[in-house]
Amino acid sequence: MDIKNLFDDDSAVSPVIGVILMVAITVILAAVIGTFVLGLGSNVQSAPTTQFSFDYSDPASGDGQIVTVTHDGGDTIDPAALSVQYTKASDDTSATKQWADASVSEVSSGNSIETDSAAKSGTTVRVVWAPEGGDTSQTLSTSQVP
Question: TM segments (predicted)?
Answer without folding.
Answer: 12-38
